[in-house]
User: Fold this.
Amino acid sequence: MITPVKQVNRVFMLALAPFIGLIICLLLFRPELEVGSIMPTSLPEDQVTSQTQTISKELAGAKEAAVQTSSSIKRTTLLYNKTTSTMSTIVQKAKVQAARPETIYNKRITSKLGVPFDRVDSDRITIELYRVNPGSYKGYAMKIKLKDHNAMKMALNSELGRSETTMQAVKRSGAIAGINAGGFADSGGKRYPLSTTVMDGKYINGFQASFKDLFFVGLNDDGKLVGGKFFDKSSLDRLHPQFGATFVPILMKNGQKTIIPDKWKVSPKRAPRTVIGNYKDDQLLIMVVDGYNESGSSGATLEEMQGRLLKLGVVDAYNLDGGGSSSLILNNRVINNPSDGNLRPVPTHFLFYK
Assistant:
């Protein structure tokens, strides 16, 4: 019979048997450790010293190279900055020198006009307004520099035959200034532009060869004033007009007075006038002369206009529609005194944009 004490001893023996077996296995099959496989063999002292010296020399060389590279970069940077500064100075001086002839020429023509009493200046255009009072007539001169050729356009109503005043054209298009342009012909209660008229590079009602004393004047796609008599379409096409209108007669060509036909010397002798011309640097000059009526007793003669334009150094000049049509608008103000008492509606206007 198994007593309780024996039963407890058997349980402990069964529980401890696996651990006792593991201990016996470890004692019987214990592996021998090789020290060399774990600990590295030590290097000879002289070899360690040699490697240390080599590494030290390489570090010193790298340091010296880094110092030299840094110094070289600094020298290059200083040279670059100095060169850039020198080039900027040269470019600036070149700009000033290049602008000198233009500045001198502009001062020369401005000195002949006097002191402007109104001025508009923007990135696109510069406008200076002067009084013209030579004694026999009174008027205004407007000198215009187009910095952007799109700063000048022509107004022509999309419904051919309709007309408007220069003020209406200015307000409708948002322009800063404007003058009346070409002549017109009335028919059936409507007002049509005279002869060859170009708008947006296209001919309105086709090309008409110049006849009698008519001429065409407008602006080309380079922003330069072009004009004259054109007896065939190809001659005008070569100038690439973007817009332009027609009237009579031409006043100046290549800095010289043209011959004025006898008819226009007396029909009328004196009148309100609107004239457009250009200087050799492509600045524009517009002159608008006041007159009390169209009877021929007030305003300026065409010969007087020629004389004044010649003194002002204008190269080419063209007489635009005058009389009651003459109008000059700047900054939403009517500058001249229209002979009709009010602005006359006409088909075409030259407009200027700020």
User: Anything to note?
Assistant: The radius of gyration is 47 Å.
